[in-house]
Write a structure and sequence with these properties.
Length: 445
């Protein structure tokens, strides 16, 4: 068993170990024996405020930092077969969710958010992309805040018309940097003219135009990061995500030596620059322009409400079980995984075969971690849900207080400014020893 890590040692190392945005990570999932029937699983869940996520696992290129479950330039016909499988899975899952058993039998399932991610959803042609939206509508995810991921080189007029027709409220463009020297250093081919065209058009078409940028790219400086920020903001972006560059096993950068790490300093430079422009910071990564429009709709909190995933790499969350297809990074394993996923029968789609059961400790850790990364943890809400004060269940939070990352009040536990910038370290540290052991075993396999 892996022993608990010391927070002060992690902070002193300066390492960026993993993104903290979900818990547990998919590398902690294992084969479920026996498989779990979805109808019985979801019957016990509150299905009134669900998030629907549709995964499109295709891209035009593989960036050097990427470990997403995505296939580069699939053979002709694969995308059409994939969308047909998504449609079949959507029908099976909708039937399971519609079961009127369980504590909420009088309330039909309700989706309050829809996201289509990847990969690159706009790698699909307009007709196939529209079929994905139609499948989501048939499940009940209609007229809800809707987000989609886009790359600069894949969005054309027909696809943009599909986004507008399906009332997309937020589009996220993976730009990473406006400088070819920086994107080229991580094997990302990208034309500056495409960036300008796509960001301008999306800014005029959707309420929230997000641009993803990365700090820590080879050769990047505070000045060039500020230049990227200013350029995409001037193009119309009203939301930015600033991501640290992660160097992961099995990726292009993971096999590269001699990389100069100066991510924390770049994060601070980017943050200060955006705050000086009047932007607000919502999380370690997320920044909003002054007066930017929220997507509205019913409230969804990932630590409280369920997620339904469609597609080869999508995760689904219930209170006691998270499930998905087996995770992979290498192209050969991903291609095989997508083919296996598409070959499933309707009966296969009706059960979960791979995932992780969350015992009471893991549920508590997940709630604490996601609450801290959001707007903070309400101590009274935690007490009502778990029957004790959060500090009684997780006394190790005292280490985070001593390190200046977390502050504890009478009613709330939240991140300090220092804690905000070290959110990923805190998220890694808050994992249970069992989850870290499972992740380490997956990486070593």
């Amino acid at each position: 068993m892996i022993e608990n890590e010391r927070l002060d040692a992690l902070l002193a190392s300066g390492e960026y170990l993993s993104y903290a945005y979900a818990y547990p990570h998919k590398t902690a999932y294992r084969t479920l024996a026996p498989p779990v029937d979805l109808r019985a699983l979801w019957a016990e869940e509150d299905r009134r405020a669900l998030f629907l996520y549709v995964h499109v696992p295709f891209c035009e290129q593989r960036c050097g930092f990427c470990n997403l479950y995505t296939q580069v330039r699939p053979k002709s016909g694969v995308e059409a077969r994939y969308v047909a499988a998504v449609e079949r899975q959507a029908a099976v899952v909708a039937e399971a969710l519609a079961d009127r058993a369980g504590p909420h039998k009088t309330t039909p399932p309700g989706f309050v958010r829809l996201a289509i991610g990847g990969g690159t959803p706009t790698f699909l042609g307009a007709a196939l992309l529209d079929r994905v939206f139609a499948a989501a509508r048939r499940m009940g995810a209609a007229d809800v805040p809707t987000s989609i991921e886009v790359s600069p080189g894949t969005l054309d007029d027909d696809q943009l018309a599909v986004l507008v027709a399906n009332r997309v409220t937020r589009a996220s463009v993976g730009v990473q940097s406006i400088l070819p020297s920086e994107t080229g250093a991580v094997q990302r081919g990208q034309a500056p003219a495409d960036v300008e065209r796509v960001v301008r058009r999306l800014a005029a078409a959707v309420a929230v135009c997000n641009v993803d940028l990365i700090y820590g790219l080879p050769g990047q400086t505070a000045a060039t990061l500020r230049r990227s920020i200013d350029h995409v903001v001037d193009l119309g972006a009203n939301e930015l995500y600033l991501y640290p560059l992660y160097v992961r096993p099995l990726t292009g950068l993971g096999r590269r030596d001699g990389w100069d790490d100066h991510r924390l300093g770049l994060y601070r430079a980017g943050r200060e620059h955006l705050l000086a422009r009047g932007w607000t910071q919502a999380s370690m990564r997320m920044f909003r322009a002054p007066g930017s429009v929220e997507t509205g709709g019913a409230e969804y909190r990932c630590q409280d409400d369920g997620m339904v995933g469609l597609g080869a790499g999508a995760r689904s969350y219930t209170r006691a079980l998270h499930y998905a297809s087996p995770y992979a990074v290498t192209q050969g394993a991903i291609r095989s995984g997508i083919e296996a996923w598409m070959a499933q029968s309707d009966a296969d789609f009706a059960v979960a075969r791979h995932g992780i059961a969350l015992d009471p400790e893991e549920r508590r850790r997940r709630f604490v971690l996601l609450s801290l990364l959001d707007t903070g943890l309400d101590r009274a809400a935690y007490l009502q849900r778990f029957g004790a004060d959060v500090l009684a269940h997780l006394p190790e939070l005292g280490e985070a207080v001593d390190a200046g990352l977390v502050e504890v009040g009478a009613g709330r536990v939240g991140l300090t400014e220092t804690g905000l910038e070290r959110s990923d370290v805190l998220g890694h540290w808050l994992q249970s020893a069992a989850v870290r052991a499972a992740r380490a075993a997956w990486e070593a396999a």
